[in-house]
Amino acid sequence: RYFDLNIRMPKKFNAFEREIRSIVKTFAERGKIDLYINYESYVDNKITISYHEDVAREYADAVKKAGDSFSLEKGLSAADLLHYPEVITIEEKELDAGVVYESLADAIKEAAGRFLETKQAEGRQLQEDIEKKLEHILELVESIEERSPEIVKEYRNRILEKVKELLGDRKIDDAVLAAEITIFADKICVDEETVRLKSHVNSMLGALKEEESVGRKLDFIAQEMNREANTILSKANDRAVSDYAIGLKTEIEKIREQIQNIE
After folding, report:
1. Whole-prediction pTM value?
2. 3-state SS track over the chain
3. If you count Cβ atoms within 10 Å of the first and of the last residue's Cβ in the chain, which end, N or C, has fewer?
């Protein structure tokens, strides 16, 4: 639903986290992204050895004083002296922040560019798949619209047959018959739902062709489509229409699942 970037990288790059997030966000606006950064230096001389003469002098003076105080042998080699703490220190050379960030940014942009190419290729496949499902939905809606008037005719014929069974040759009042049929027709009428459903399908087809991020928009349209399909199913008083409505819900649910993969 949102932009969720998880970065795993060496601590020495923590200072660049904001810049890294900014780079990645230019390639993706929505979704969960894991970014792994590994670092290995190929510089021949990676460390610096520092000799601290003042510290060495203090050690040498201390050794001399100890020898004088206790009449000890005063021999002290340079190698011995270098083994004393802090006489020499070994440090990793500091990285040039500007050079490091430039190389890091280039690597991230290259990786993100490939990610974008893959995302776009997958997006085209999803678009084709969703468009086919929308086409099927329109076919189901058309079938419902064709079937609906037949249901009313069949209901009218059933009423006439029942009346004939009960009243024999006597005729039913046309006004009563018309009122009964009107109530039934109004009860099962799904004209508003099918019109709105077709409108939602056209809206989704248009949204699929937009350049910007449309995932949330598609998700909202799919919810509205599902609402209309539910209403049609609840009004269905016919096996065929019920089957069509179930088909609608099935296709819409498939679309909703696909939409979760769209930015």
Report:
1. 0.62
2. CCEEEEEECCHHHHHHHHHHHHHHHCCCCCEEEEEECCCCCCCCCCEEEEECHHHHHHHHHHHHHHHHHHCCCCCCCHHHHHCCCCCEEEEECCCCHHHHHHHHHHHHHHHHHHHHHHHHHHHHHHHHHHHHHHHHHHHHHHHHHHHHHHHHHHHHHHHHHHHHHHHCCCCCCHHHHHHHHHHHHHHHCCHHHHHHHHHHHHHHHHHHCCCCCCHHHHHHHHHHHHHHHHHHHHHCCCHHHHHHHHHHHHHHHHHHHHHCCCC
3. N
